[in-house]
Specification:
The complex is a heterodimer of chains A (367) and B (845). With 367 residues, chain A is mainly beta. Chain A contains 6 helices and 26 strands. The longest helix of chain A is centred in the N-terminal third of the chain and has 13 residues. The two termini of chain A are 58 Å apart. Among the domains of chain B are: 97 residues, no CATH class; 109 residues, no CATH class; 125 residues, no CATH class; 85 residues, no CATH class. Chain B has a 26-stranded antiparallel barrel. Chain B has a two-stranded antiparallel ribbon with strand order 11-12. Helices cover 28% and strands 41% of the residues of chain B. Chain B is built from 19 helices and 30 strands. By secondary structure, chain B is α+β, with helices and mostly antiparallel strands. Classes of the chains: A mainly beta (367), B alpha+beta (845). Chain A: This is DUF928 domain-containing protein.
Chain lengths: 367, 845
């Protein structure tokens, strides 16, 4: 079935029929037959050698609905060779809509809806002597199915991803029209920018044309995306030099959690001062400063639970002391023996034989 | 089905609007608070006035003697605190008004005092000015303060970058310059954003460039700047009389008077005197009513007063007996003692009632003591709110008309800007023009006008026409109650005309038409349950020189005149609910929308036509974010025919989960499926379907003693684009190892098309990198790359990056990727073998 359509399309694309007059019409219904404005993209090929005043009438009808619309241009000069319709002429054209549902939608949106259409072009002489004489007429038939919207899939809207070279996926533009390709733009979204601004103001990181499948693996030549930054992307479907449909603009943020190295913002107080205070809150870890005049040695320490003395202590992390001043961090958050709100006693034996005891309240870190 | 949904939508919309209307009748707590603020401080209180005047009198007495201009200074009207001011303080006060508000104002004040005898307005004016005078910190003329730094400029950011790339389908050369700057003109900060992008493509176009510029008024910086001047000149705590302890002043006043009454009582026994002195205190006088005060007296056992003793007839009798027996009489002694006490009690009560009246009516003691604004801490909290800052600025600084207007402005953008209002009106519109919005007393107004051209931009150089009419000139307006980002009810209109226009190679040849859109949007807060936004939008389109049916007249009508034509075809309605349930750590969204097949809103480029769309999003986390689960679905039925029920049916479904085992280990699972199906007479089949499952892990650990980071992603994807069926399997490994101060990284990506139907042929890419420092300043990374796209292209190359800070805040970065093609075929339409980038950036922060 699809092949049949492709065949029909092929015929329409390349077979512009030579008529009895010198004028033929170049019209691609699969592109230009979709909108009212598209009808005026018709090109007139004049094989004659003289220019003459003419006027063009376009009539569109659909099976089941009858007439939809007719457009009549004022007189204009037809030159030898291929003619496009002049812009000023279009502005002065007269449009007549029929009274049916398909015509109503066309009148409101400018788009033709699904149907079996016939597009007829008629060129008449516009000068006094040949008033009304038909110089060329031609009809094109096309079963029109409006394009589906171009929908993005992945990375999902406002998603946070860890991949710095993400693949992009979207849904293809349907119905499949031969020669349709995709273009993907990726740009950074700077703080305070709107998405559309980001696409226009920032140099795109990717602006890849000529994509045939509805997906793009991150180009191997391109630089990695940056941790913490937000990006916007948009896909456009086009054929040759005509933009067909734009997708929405989506954004995503590249963020890998494990890269953030924990920064210790709290200060390290000397263990001697700490033990005097007799009250210490350990938020996920115990921090203290200690001087070691001896060589490198593992810190000799143990922790007991005061709130629930029977609580079994799991293996405590090994902490090494270096020579000189040490800032000791004993991480406890991964150890399930430590319960939020329980009191514990840290007993440590320093390399110089000194013994210290620190009572502390354990608080789990807030996420 | 469609009509049922539409009817339902309309019903819900109506009921919501109704609800919103009823909700408005009962003001919320916040509204009451705002009203309270608007009413001003309790300056009417004489106690407060006296204290304020007293403090000013003292200040002017202490201040070194100054010679004042005695010319034409108006007389301070004897109202409010003004009547307590001494002469020297009055002189200083008018000097202050002249300095802060301008000499002109003094003249105006004199005139208005002479002509209008509107004491309420003058009183209010005087009270505000007096508070300002009281709070004056710096006597420097306000114009001098406003003048310092009124014109300034500071560069926030400047970037320049360039690239060269030989990938097919990618522009060959590109350069970009962006500048972010802030200019202060007459204390009005304007942010300037400038961007120039230029480039050239291999395939067609000559070198081209595009400059965009945007000027936007920076409201936050404006308020900050003016507020800093206010704070420099005035002590805001004094302005709100926060330093005056009215409460204890009233209490001590009452206490002193009460003691005076007690001292006047004579001829009482020791016991009775003691009883009277402890009978009532200042709180009793302020808080209790007269019956309660009387009861206090009657309940006192020591005094033994009865209700009869206070009866006028009894009182007269007792007094006459006391007169008859001025001396002690042994037989009547106890009786006379009682009469004396009763007489004293009557005097006492009369004094108390008089005091009560004075305190209550004169000082308004009860109200000032219970006034929350006077209570501790409230005022300083409000000082931080932007609305209070704006009010203080308006009251205390002499601003010109534009400066005043800008205090109510939210936004003023001009240039190449993104315009956005509520859904159904203007949305995500990029245009050259201007947009401005104001918010004053909770009333919102947004205005804008501009030109939209969809093509001809530097990134779209390839396109010279588009299916949509790509150029419009338009004007829009949105107004209503409430701020746009807060719960609100707004109405909006958009008027647009297509333009036959061209920019570079891009031309639009369109049939001229006029489109008008009218919209309502209602955003309602459901408290802690979230927000619900409803919108209704209606469009109408009129082609120039057009006629319908057999109408012989060809006309060019304004679309606004027949807005209600073709109602259902050009209507768009939507409901969107966003909420959170904090107890469950869950957030949710649900939405439903309908738009008619003829709906056409040029100010909202993303708006769909002929679509019924509904969807649901849920996200919940457990164990302090360690486990996160999200589900979302989106359904769209897109009508394609006006006559039949043909439509595109799109179904999307996705689920994703994340499990963070600990700080070093996290796993992700994602699954999504989406399908587009066409239904109708001609075709009924799946046109597109994809299913994707991906698993990812992020690990951190140590390899021997070397810390490493590892991200592994596995993907399985089924893609059916009829008639092709593909199944892709891909793996992406990203591994980095820290070796002393260096990082060794490796990235491997492999994609295999299992069915070999080549939607995307097998692809292998391998990249390595080694970071190091050169000359202690330049951080570099070097690596080898390899790419193999089966039977299409095979490449081997190297990649180099270098970056350094030339000056503090000035960074230079360089990137080169250069490869040798081991194999290249004509099917290669995506892989180039050279890319280089250079970026220079200056950043203030």
């Amino acid at each position: 079935m699809l092949k049949f359509y492709q065949g029909v399309i092929f015929l329409m694309l390349f077979c512009t029929v030579q008529l009895h007059a010198q004028v033929t019409f170049v019209f691609i219904p699969e592109l230009h037959g979709r909108t009212l404005d598209g009808l005026l993209q018709v090109k007139l090929a004049n094989t004659g050698s003289q220019s003459q005043p003419v006027s063009l009438t376009i009539k569109v009808s659909a099976a089941g609905a009858g007439n939809i619309v007719s457009i009549k241009t004022p007189a204009f000069q037809l030159m030898p060779g291929t003619n496009s319709l002049p812009g000023g002429l279009i502005a002065r054209s007269v449009i007549r809509f029929a009274e049916n549902k398909a015509a109503t939608v066309c009148r409101q949106s400018g788009y033709f809806t699904e149907g079996d259409y016939e597009y007829c072009f008629e060129l008449n002489a516009g000068d006094q002597s040949h008033q009304g004489e038909t110089l060329g007429d031609q009809c094109f038939d096309y079963y029109l199915q409006p394009f589906s919207p171009l929908l993005l899939l992945n990375p999902a809207e406002e998603d946070q991803i860890c991949n710095k070279r993400p693949p992009f996926f979207w849904q293809p533009l349907l119905p499949a029209v031969p020669g349709v390709q995709y273009r993907l733009v990726l740009a950074e979204l700077k703080p305070g920018q709107a998405k559309v601004e980001a696409l226009n103001y920032n140099l795109p990181l990717l602006n890849q044309f000529g994509i045939n499948a509805p997906m793009l693996f991150y180009p191997s030549l391109a630089k990695d995306l940056t941790q913490g930054k937000t990006y916007v992307w948009q896909v456009s479907a086009y054929k040759n030099d005509m933009l067909l449909v734009n997708s929405e603009i989506w954004e995503f943020t590249v963020y890998c959690e494990e890269e953030s190295t924990p920064i210790v913002t709290e200060s390290f107080r000397d263990i001697t001062d700490l033990t005097k205070g007799n009250f210490y809150i350990a938020r996920g870890k115990v921090l203290f400063a200690v001087d070691n005049v001896y060589d490198k040695v593992p810190l000799n320490y143990k922790i007991r639970c005061i709130t629930k003395p029977e609580l079994e202590m799991r293996k405590l992390p090994v902490v090494r002391l270096k020579r000189g001043a040490n800032q000791v961090v004993i991480p406890l958050s991964e150890n399930r023996s430590f319960v939020d709100g329980y009191y514990y006693l840290l007993e440590l034996r320093l390399p110089n034989g000194e013994e210290k005891q620190l009572r502390f309240l354990y608080k789990s870190e807030t996420e | 089905m469609a009509k049922v949904i539409i009817a339902w939508c309309t019903c819900v919309l109506l009921s919501i609007t109704l609800h919103a209307q009823t909700a408005k009748v009962i003001p919320s707590g916040r509204q009451l608070k705002e009203q309270g603020i608007k009413m001003g401080l309790p300056m009417e209180n004489p106690m407060l006035q006296m204290m304020l005047a007293d403090s000013l009198n003292k200040r002017s007495a202490i201040a070194p003697a100054k010679t004042y201009l005695r010319q034409n200074l108006p007389v301070v009207p004897d109202i409010g605190a003004g009547k307590y001011l001494q002469e020297s303080a009055r002189q200083e006060f008018f000097q202050f008004i002249g300095n802060s508000a301008g000499k002109q104002q003094l003249v105006q004040l004199q005139q208005s005092m002479n002509t209008i005898k509107d004491t309420a307005r003058i009183r209010r004016y005087m009270e505000d000015k007096l508070r300002g005078f009281y709070a004056l910190r710096d006597e420097t003329g306000v114009n001098k303060l406003l003048g310092a730094g009124a014109y300034s400029n500071h560069l926030k950011e400047a970037n320049a970058s360039a690239f060269a790339d030989n990938t097919p389908g990618v522009p060959m050369l590109g350069t970009s310059v962006t500048i972010a700057d802030q200019l202060m003109i007459k204390n009005i900060p304007v942010n300037i954003g400038y961007s120039n992008i230029s480039g050239q493509s291999t395939w067609s176009n000559p070198f081209a460039d595009q400059s965009l510029v945007k000027f936007s008024f920076d409201k936050a910086a404006y308020v900050k700047r003016l507020n800093s001047i206010v704070e420099k000149k005035y002590d805001l705590k004094k302005y709100f009389l926060k330093d005056i302890d009215v409460r204890s002043a009233v209490k001590s006043f009452t206490r002193n008077r009460l003691e005076g009454i007690q001292q006047q009582l004579a001829g009482l026994g020791e016991q009775q005197s003691a009883a009277f002195s402890s009978l009532l205190n200042s709180d009793h006088i302020i808080q209790l009513d007269s019956i309660q005060l009387k009861n206090e007296l009657l309940n006192n056992r020591v005094l033994g007063i009865t209700a009869e003793d206070l009866e006028p007839a009894v009182a007269a009798l007792q007094d006459s007996i006391l007169l008859a027996y001025p001396l002690a009489d042994s037989t009547l002694n106890s009786q006379l003692q009682h009469f004396r006490t009763a007489s004293a009690a009557r005097k006492y009560m009369a004094g108390v009632f008089a005091l009560k009246k004075e305190v209550e009516e004169g000082l308004q003691a009860k109200s000032i003591i219970s006034d929350g604004r006077v209570a501790e801490g409230k005022i300083s909290g409000q000082l931080e709110e932007e609305s209070s800052k704006i009010r203080n600025i308006k009251e205390l600084l002499p601003l010109n008309g534009l400066q005043r207007l800008l205090l109510s402005a939210k936004q003023f953008d001009i240039g190449n800007i993104a315009a956005s209002g509520s859904k159904g009106g203007v949305q995500d519109l990029f245009m050259s023009g201007l947009q401005t919005s104001f918010l004053n007393n909770n009333k919102f107004l947004m205005l804008g006008a501009g030109k939209r051209i969809d093509g001809g931009t530097i990134r779209d150089l390839t396109f010279n026409s588009s299916l949509d009419p790509g150029a419009y000139s338009m004007q829009f307006l949105q107004m209503g109650a409430g701020d746009i980002s807060q719960p609100h009810s707004h109405a909006a209109v958009v008027n647009a005309n297509t333009k036959s226009d061209s920019r570079r190679q891009y031309t639009t040849l369109t049939l001229p038409r006029n489109t008008f859109v009218g919209a309502f949007s209602e955003d309602i807060s459901l408290g802690s349950y979230g927000r619900i936004a409803a919108q209704l939008s209606k469009s109408n389109n009129q082609f120039k020189n057009s006629a319908t049916g057999n109408d012989p007249m060809v006309a060019s009508k304004a679309a606004a005149l027949s807005l209600f034509n073709d109602f259902w075809e050009t209507l768009s309605v939507g409901l969107d609910y966003n909420g959170k349930v904090d107890e469950w750590n869950m957030s949710q969204r649900a939405y439903v929308s309908y738009s008619g097949l003829g709906y056409n809103n040029p100010a909202s480029p993303g708006a769909g036509r002929g679509t019924i769309r509904y969807g649901l999003k849920l996200k919940r986390n457990w164990y302090k974010n360690k486990l996160v689960l999200g589900v979302r679905s989106d359904f769209q039925d897109i009508s394609s025919s006006a006559l039949t029920s043909s439509k595109w049916k799109n179904r999307q479904f996705a689920i994703d989960g994340r499990w963070k085992l600990n700080k070093k280990m996290a796993f992700d699972v994602r699954f999504n499926q989406s399908a587009m199906k066409s239904t109708g007479e001609k075709a009924a089949s799946f046109q597109y379907m994809t299913r994707q499952l991906s698993l990812a892990s992020q690990l951190q650990g140590k390899m021997a003693t070397l810390p490493y980071n590892s991200n592994i992603m596995l993907g399985y994807q089924q893609i059916d684009i009829l008639p092709q069926h593909s199944t892709l399997l891909n793996i992406n490994i990203n591994h980095s190892l820290v070796i002393s101060s260096h990082v060794l990284s490796m990235n491997l990506f492999y994609n295999k098309d299992i069915k070999g139907e080549a939607v995307y042929a097998n692809l292998l890419t391998l990249e390595t990198g080694w970071t190091y420092l050169v000359l202690k300043k330049i951080s570099c990374s070097s690596g080898v790359t390899y790419l193999d796209n089966k039977a299409v292209v095979q490449q081997l190359g190297f990649r180099q990056t270098a970056g350094t800070s030339v000056l503090p805040r000035l960074n230079v970065n360089m990137y080169v990727d250069c490869r040798k093609n081991l194999l290249n075929t004509p099917q290669n339409y995506l892989f180039g073998n050279f890319r280089s980038e250079l970026a220079i950036s200056y950043q203030l922060n």
